């Protein structure tokens, strides 16, 4: 029975992926900005309109709520108890906050992140049905599928005597995307965060530093056409990779394998690996360089973050970084600040 059920779920998932592949990707502004909202840093208030989430500046195009567990338990009624979401407000208040935000900024896409570095286990018990129910009840626009495997088990092109890197997790990505699309077809949005070095290991980027076990772990994007076509947005986690890592070089590597919306991710300083974090002027210049590239954007993790030493032009907060991105894009309304 278990084998038949697994086969049925896989078949349904593949059919859904094919259906999603036939639909058009979600349209984002060009360029676009993206932010991760740290639910645990929310203010414990009684009204959704009084939350920091509801006050997200409307120059942000994609807002991502972090994080729920892959094996979340959600039966309905906006009961967040067993979902892993750490917001210090009840589910109905969170849903009211999302309604207030989308009422003020209707074009903004608001997604729910599942997984992340805090929930690396539990993917073998992934429950896309529970996730879909929660997304629907909260009034969200889709999911950020943040699968961060502890060991991708990649084989380099050189070791394989081939032209590309192949990883054990390639099939897992395919299954997770198919299972998610089975319950959240388009127009629901599906974004995926991508490892810093995930597009390295082949072609002009075969020996790109810094190397490591995640090199090539996202090259499936160039091979698995069905899975890639079901994705709306790829976000590069272009941080925590060490001093030799070049984020813009990584952006070029991902652009070589992915033609859809692509965001270059920044982290609120300090970087845990000693990788330089750009200051306000450098972020503004980076956004200005990306704004003329097709389907390009900038992501900031996280929106509510503040450096331990305090925010400054050299060590900006998440809100300051997002404002600099807005200014680099040449937009209006960049003065909107987080509460």
UniProtKB/TrEMBL annotation:
The keyword Ubl conjugation does not apply. This is Glycoside hydrolase family 18. GO terms for molecular function: hydrolase activity. Keywords: Hydrolase, Signal. Residues 1-22 form the signal peptide. It comes from Tistrella mobilis (strain KA081020-065). The keyword Hydrolase applies. Gene3D superfamilies: Glycosidases. It comes from the Bacteria.
